[in-house]
Amino acid sequence: MKIVVLGGGISTERHVSLVTGTSVCRALRSRGHKAIFVDMFLGLEDYAGALEDAFDAPDGFCGSVAIEKVAPDLGAVRAARKDKSPSRLGKDVLAVCALADCVFLGLHGADGEDGKIQAALDLLGVPYTGSDYLGSAMAMDKAVAKRIMDSNGIRTPAWRELRYCEEDIPRLSEELPVPCAVKVVNGGSSIGVQLPDTREELTAALRDVLRYGNRVVVEEKISGRELTVPVLGDRALCPIEIVPPEGSSFDYVAKYQSGSEGAAELCPAPIGEKETKLLQETALKFHRALGLSVYSRTDFILDAEGRAWCLEVNTLPGMTPASLIPKAAAVAGMSYGELCEAIVEESLRVRRGEKR
Which of 207, 209, 222 is nearest to 177 (CA)? Predict the structure, then answer.
């Protein structure tokens, strides 16, 4: 198949997406597909050949990329693009996608997980991987996702949605409960998330999160073990426990850096059969309540009493070889290349409207 792997983009998760996209592209090429990697924001600005010949590029346009310790400088990315238009789609992105048999969405965050690119591809009539535009949009908006949890009886920490500006911070610092979690509604990779324990920390958290947006979810901070459950097709894979470095949370650095700075990921999670079943059933319930398809990954806190508190769902979770879904798939006997190909095949089945 001719496959465009879209990655990069102009979200705060750009670095993660670049690694996901190039990794997936190489895996699909190793399985015989004519896969090429295309940065959604930069497009094919350095390619001068005919578009139909792009799928024959010997390296699939896969460069050398890595996840940095800090979020990307998006201003620098914008400045580096040759096309200075306000479009968030780079040169020939939609045109080359229209030539593909399938578009593998290796995007994360804004423009990738929020339903926008899904809707554009729907209008083009081009099949793509993962959930449709509506499920993606609902899952990406943390406040909407919380409402879906509440309406479906899925346990989630007490929460409230609010919009604020700098002038509101002193008042909110006194009104909001602590400890708590402050999350920008459309963030990911723990960017735009703060976990204040004191009122002084809350003031700093509100000021920091305001850099990413003025609409946030503030939720009760639940103590317990951090777990995540991937869903692939119509089944939940094994839960994975995430153990951040001592004295820190599962932030951007802990998620993506190895060694002492990174988090430990225990796959499968060392929990009992009862807890495993509870987490898997809840992940599937949330996946279905949002109308998601193909794959997702739902994050939980498992408290000391064995209660699973659902936090959020990721419709395009990380897909580097070291990411969580590939680790769970490996436990189920599926290699990384097989997983990438299975996501394409399942997505094509869903786009065709076929039932299992």
Answer: 222
- In tens, the pLDDT along 52-100 reads 999 999 999 998 777 766 778 889 999 999 998 999 999 999 999 999 9
What DSSP string describes 235-250? Answer: EE---EEEEPPTT--S
CATH fold of 159-220: Dna Ligase; domain 1 (3.30.1490)
What is the pLDDT, as a whole number, of residue 260?
42
**CB neighbourhood size of 119 (10 A):** 15
pLDDT tens digit sequence for 6-44: 999 998 889 999 999 999 999 999 999 999 999 999 999
* pLDDT, tens only, 265-313: 999 999 999 999 999 999 999 999 999 999 999 999 999 999 999 999 9
Q: Taking the CA of residue 78 as centre, how many other CA atoms within 13 Å lie in the half-sphere pointing to its CB?
A: 11
Task: Give strand pairing partners of 105.
Answer: 6
DSSP code for 59: T
Q: Is the pLDDT of residue 339 over 90?
A: yes
Q: Tokens for 221, please give them.
A: 């901070």
State pTM to two decimals: 0.90
Q: Are 250 and 226 in contact (CB under 8 A)?
A: yes
DSSP alpha helix (H) spans, the chain = 14-30, 74-80, 93-97, 116-124, 133-140, 142-151, 169-175, 199-209, 252-256, 273-289, 324-331, 336-351
Q: In the CATH scheme, what is the homologous superfamily, with its name and number, of domain 140-154+223-315?
A: ATP-grasp fold, B domain (3.30.470.20)
Place of tokens 């324990």: 197
Q: Domain residue spans in the chain?
A: 2-129, 140-154+223-315, 159-220
Q: Interhelix angle for 336-351 vs 14-30, to 10°?
A: 90
Q: Which fold has domain 2-129?
A: Rossmann fold (3.40.50)
d(CA 153, CA 291): 16
Angle at 4 between CA 106 and CA 327, to 5 degrees: 35
